[in-house]
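hiii so my PI (J.) wants the whole complex modelled not just the main chain, which honestly fair. so below is everything: two entries, each one labled with what it is. i double checked the lines twice but i was tired so who knows lol
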Amino acid sequence: MRVENQIENGTDSKKSNGLSRMVYLMAPFIGIGIMLILWFSASAANPQAFPNPSAVLLLLYDLLFHPLSGYTLLGHVAISLRRVCIALFFAMLVGIPLGILMGWSRLMRATVGTLFECIRPIPVLAWIPLMIMWFGIGEKAKIIMIFIGALMPIVVNSYTGIKLVSPLYLDVGRMFNASSQSKLLLKIVLPAALPTIFAGIRNATSMSLMVVLAAEMLAAKSGLGFMINRGMEAYNMTLVMSGMVAIGVTGAMLSILTNMIERRICPWNSHTKSE
Amino acid sequence: MEQPHKVRVKLEHISKSFKNNSKSPNHEVIRDVSFKVYDNEFLVLLGPGRCGKSVLLNIMAGLLTADWGSVSLDGEQIKGPNPQIGMVFQKTGLLPWLTVMENTEFGPKMRGIGKTERQKLAQHFLNLVGLDGYEKNYPYQLSGGMKQRVGIARAYSNEPKLLIMDEPFGALDAQTRYNMQNEILDIAKKEKRTIIFVTNNIEEALLLGDRIILFTSCPAQIKNIYEINLPKPRDSMQKEFLRLRREISDNTDLAL
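here's the output for the full assembly
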């Protein structure tokens, strides 16, 4: 099978090396270009609702040096990222072991799993009133909300990752002197589940960005969500859009970073992603 | 052949059924199978597809337990996974997160053998299957035939008393399969081991086996045992080879 694939790929790339490579290199810029053209024409039609892209870029540049309510643009980004990172760290610390235990032990699955299934369908945003009641509007409430949002995909993926380990690998472990429960778990099941667990971390990262913005838009004095909210209150759509662009860039950076880490930790899996 | 050779493996009255569900009757896969495997013998188990050969292998390997009967290796009962038995899986079962070297040294590593010693051992068998230079590759970078070579090297590196090969070439294309058959003969000649080899291919069985045990279709029962006294490597066009092939073929049940 693989040999066939290689042969097919080989002829394919030979035929199309020059031209299609150019096309694929250009494609992302074409996409962004089309968006910019639409944006420019929209802002020409209604500058009130659609601020000019150049105005947005200028404001972003300006925010790099002139603080908005105490922080520069990078300051706001850093504050949002800090909240995300702390929450993600604790979500992994709790979620990965919990998911693994749920996947490995039937008793854990029966007790914690059922409870978890009941809590999971509640959207994170529904927790906001309670969080504010319990923890106020400070850092703690925001981080706990992000934590809840990030915990779900991490637990679910760790759990499915463990459940989906091929029985063949378990047989291999048993035949090659890794038949004790602890060795099976550490040497066979965990590495086999690692790519799925990582997919959960990737989902959790994008989830965290969503939650941090929601939390910051509701109640915060700093962060990207705060920037957008301030723009809304002041009827400054340029500021709103600047915030959106900053989030887009931050999110893209984060996903590139997680991809890099994943390639480092699961090098055997990188080929499935690049195709 | 029987007298001078020591008996290594002994199967006595093995039977096995699987429960499908409460309504349908149990699905019987093996019925009263007994045979012996002799020292350094290349024994081929031949039978139509899905006739319970793999189940029988898994029972011998200790991965499954039989409903009836017993399996012993050198006089000791097999009750559970046994490191004395090396297994080559049909679907290779290479661990994708380990390199070729790490896969090959996995057995001795789990047994707690030191790094230099186990890598020397693994390297020896990797060289034997012709994979020197590929130690640092991951399985996804290898072709089907190369993957199964790693599978064979891994089984040998575990230093088993008995090697079980479960249709190891079943997933390979015809040309690769043919090459691998010659190669396994070569390896078996250089590294004497007791080997049980399962296949559903009559020609493969005749090319490799010192003895061939022919099974019926489900439930698997022993239909006939053939002693193949042709010298190896064998010529598949030779008269006696073709005669045996016809004889076995006429005696084989059609698979459903």
